[in-house]
Amino acid sequence: MTRLPDFRLETYFSQWEFTARHHMTASDVQTMTLGELLALAGDQDRAAFENLSLGYTETYGDPELREVIARTYERVDAADVICFAGAEEALYLAMNVLLDAGDHAVVVTPNYQAAETVPMALCEVTGVALDPDRDWALDLDRVKAAIRPHTRVVSVNFPNNPTGKVISAADFTELARLCDERGIHLFSDEVYRGLERDPARTLPQAADLSERALSLNVTSKSLGLPGLRIGWITCRDRDLLTRLERAKHYTTICNSAPGEVLARIALKARQTILDRNRALIERNLPVFEAFFAEFADVFEWQAPDGGCVAYPRYLGPEGVEEFCTRLVEQAGVLLLPASIYRSELTPTPADRFRIGIGRRNPEQGLAAFAQWMRAHR
Asked: Are 325 and 212 in contact (CB under 8 A)?
């Protein structure tokens, strides 16, 4: 395994995720029970789950699951899809397949830590930061300036974690064109796609825009089903998919058979689940806006363009790290401070924290948060 630093988010979560009374920084939407998911299944899929043989599955993924995934794109078919045990395995193996020691990658920040630490363990990497002073805008000229003759990958994530930023479709299409023009693979983390506040701002998927581009997705985030542990990469470069399959032989080999059938059911009911999840976020947003309005002298709040996380600014004198530590220790309210999203590649704001807006009934956690704030202002 490539030598990697501690994963700051997971290390923090290992201490607090299941012990804090109020998990207010969840990166996924409210999940559902197995019974609720099976209620969305057709008779054939429900029977397939109940009579499932628990043997090995295909390395590329269940053929019917790949067919269902392909139908969520415009220009791909099942042969352009390979499944993984969640998005993390997919990201890790993709970077190891795409990058070698003499290569160069461009990574947009802030991001999910593995998006930069895995490439950095393999080759030289340049970061391009979203601009917090311009609504987290992505400057395409800075991306162009970062590209070198040996650049092999440009890695992006929209809707962005942790900021919730969605760039314009025109800029995303131009980014894909720019990568194609230079023979670069655009690696697009699209795990929050489908949770845009304005559906008209939903970006095209990278794999539809370019034969070289890779679209990463998973059942965990927009669908709120992380327990299935099913992710995938879609790419029309079949030779690259073959290399990914060979790499997977050294990790999981194949996915969980129950997880693949359940993912198939979820994706067939995708629109129903996304409508439910967007409605949940829409219901929650006024609750969060009212909370942050009460403490407007301490926080700068901005609702995300998409996804189910936001990245407010903390204005208190002690700084966001001490604030988050005291809050979880004294009130049991878990947030993720800016250090979790610290980049080794670019300056990143040190006064932000991630809060999740996609879980059901956030009022209890926000009440505990508000009570603590009133007592410690």
From this structure: no
Q: How many residues does the chain have?
A: 377
Residue type, 225: L
- φ/ψ of 249, rounded to 5, equals -60, -25
What sign does the CA torsion over 135, 350, 334, 300 have? negative
Coil/strand/helix, residue 305: coil
Instruction: Find out whether 236 and 41 touch, Cβ atoms under 8 Å.
Output: no
Nearest to 312 by CA among 366, 363, 349: 349
Collapsed DSSP state (helix, strand, coil) of residue 218: strand
Closest CA to 25 of 341, 243, 342: 341
Regions in the chain scoring below 70 on pLDDT: 1-2
Residue 217's closest CA among 329, 99, 356, 72? 72
CB atoms within 10 A of CB 374: 10
Judging by DSSP bridges, how do beta strands 231-234 and 81-84 pair with one another? antiparallel
What's the pLDDT score for residue 377? 74
User: What's the gap between Cα 73 and its chain centre?
Assistant: 18
- Residue 120 CA: distances (Å) to CA of 115, 142, 362: 9, 19, 37
Tokens found for residue 214: 């890779």
Q: What is the pLDDT at residue 1? A: 53
Q: How far apart are CA 110 and CA 331, in angstroms?
A: 28
Q: Are 316 and 325 in contact (CB under 8 A)?
A: no
Amino acid at 307: G
d(CA 358, CA 163): 14
Q: Rg for the chain (alpha carbons), in Å?
A: 20
Burial of 222 (0-12, 13-18, 19+ CB in 10 A): buried
Cis peptide bond prior to 162, omega within 30° of 0? yes
Rounded distance, CA 183 to CA 208, Å?
16
Query: Which residue segments constitute the domains of the chain, with CATH numbers given?
Result: 8-33+271-376 (3.90.1150.10), 34-268 (3.40.640.10)
Return d(Cα 67, Cα 264) in angstroms, integer. 9
Check: CB of residue 304 under 8 Å from CB of residue 310: yes
CA distance 231 to 260: 10
Give the distance, in angstroms, between the CA of residue 301 and the centroid of all CA atoms in the same chain: 21
Q: Which amino acid is at 85?
A: A
